[in-house]
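Final report, closing paragraph on structural work. Over the funding period we assembled a curated collection of sequence-structure pairs, and we close with a single example.
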Amino acid sequence: MIKEISNFIKTVPEEAFNYGLKLKLGFHVFISVENDPVIISKEVFDKKTEMNALFHRALKLQVNSIPVSPAKIFNPNKKIFGASCSPFTLSFKKGNLEKYREKKVLKKEFNLNEDLSDLEVNVKFKELISGELKQYFSAAAKYTNEELQQSWCDKLEQFCKNSLIDFLDGLEAYQKLKPVEYINLYLEQPTLENYGIAHQKYLSEKVFNKDKFNVELNETTFGISDSLSGFNDKKMFLQHWSAPMEYNYRIAGEDARLVWQFFQMRKNRQLPNPMPVFINQEDLTNLAVSTYQEDGKRGYAEIIKAVIDKSQSQNIGNYYLIFFQGGLKGSSIIDLDFVSGFSYKMEDIKIREIIPMKGKLESETKINNVFDFERKLLKIIFNNQMVQQRKDGRWGLNYFSELELNPKFGMTANTFDKMMKYRKAFYDFIYKSKREAIQQKHFDDIMKTGILEDIQMDEIKNGYHSNKFKILNKLNIWFSLYEYFDFTQFSKPLNDTPMASKIEKYHAFTNELVAGKSHLQEGDDQQFAFTAGQVIAYLFSKSRSSDSSYSRLEPFLQKRDCGLFKQAILRFFEMYKHENFSNNFKKPFAEVMAFETEINLKDLSPLILAGFFSDNKLFANASSSN
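Its predicted structure, as stored:
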């Protein structure tokens, strides 16, 4: 993968490195050193300032002077001048400079006991800053290529030592700067290429983790990339004591620099997440980045669609897929895998309203590709927690992020548990086309427990069930995909009679049962479960309780034994035996109470739920929904 990343960075257009970058807030000063140092332009940039030619130029120079890390700066002692690493630039925060102007700080730095006058404070302050500047420019001088460049660097150092403090103190605008804002000094004479070469030379040396790990081979330095590996020398419990080797992988300085630039682009939010890196197809990798950078809102789905359109193939592959996670030490890579082939189309899924919802669900869940599956179905299945569309139009993905319980906004205990258990499998299923990652038992576990939790948490609010549509949506998705994840290696369903067809058959059977034209068949447990669901739903309609929520259904779904299940129905019936019951109810109720089975009724809960929530045939009129 190092080779692919290096090749990609070599071919990235310059504008991609500048995408989304913001100029540092504060003073931007250009200094001419053709003769004696002279300030030729200075402007303040704040949040309300519009970009002009000077600021655009400053931004390019800022990109070519950024430090590798706070540990690799030119001024490591006091870290005053830690915002730049270039022989032609000096950048620092106002607060880092001004804190050393305080009397108590200076007394401590110079080990003084007596008090200091204002004049002495100024002298000692300049003396301290002069020493830090010497350290900065001594390190910076290593990255000049010729005598002329060295003279430019020396003149910038001369100006800073002799005039910087007085120059800043004489500026009213400097006094108004906030401590977190910057002072940025740039030399006028070096070209952008000069800046770039010096910075690349610095990067090639400093992107290694530690110098002691470096080795020389054929006049090329190889070391441990700081972007890919971290060491825990001071944390013994994080060290890999059983590793067969002390170091995992050394790479050349040039490759280490390119890898650092890659991760710097990620840090600057210039790369999509996930990020495909194609092997020997840098044009496709560049297309992925440019598609993302067009407006910053395009997700992986739009990126892959652009790649497919360019390659003119529905099935692409031969790339590494990287998922970054912010807050991690080192590379921030939380998942890395090779994708040999990616299947974009997913036209074999159709969500049907087996339990009618006036066509709303069917219209909103038309699936044409794998990202429709993610954005339309996973959104419903996981209560808008796995994937969610933000207000700015971008999609948030929670495949690897930290999760927190928050039932008020949908992150219930069950959703939390199932996401922790299955979200990586869904990520592999969608983004790597690992269709075997999700199996029927996984899908059943997710859907069953999710629906049961929605039933438990249902409330009556303003005369309506709070979770009715969540339950119906999930039931229809479950029944529509009941056999989808149960495939042989030849992609043939193991069960020829899909759940959707069974429910329709049992619904038609209920009509015959009501009319006295049929009976519950011995051994047909699923038929019994569906009819029992219809009976329970009818009895629910007789309730005059203030609590008529679906949570009252839970005791029936917890029964394993058929006898105990029927007892629960009978007790429920006896609560309302004084009510009038339709003739349509009597025959199904009697058939259910007479049925016997040894099966665990929890295994029949999908059919009980289907009977309960389907159009009920037991009312006196032709049809009435619950």
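The mean pLDDT is 89. Residues 297 and 462 are 38 Å apart (CA to CA). We thank the funder for supporting this effort.
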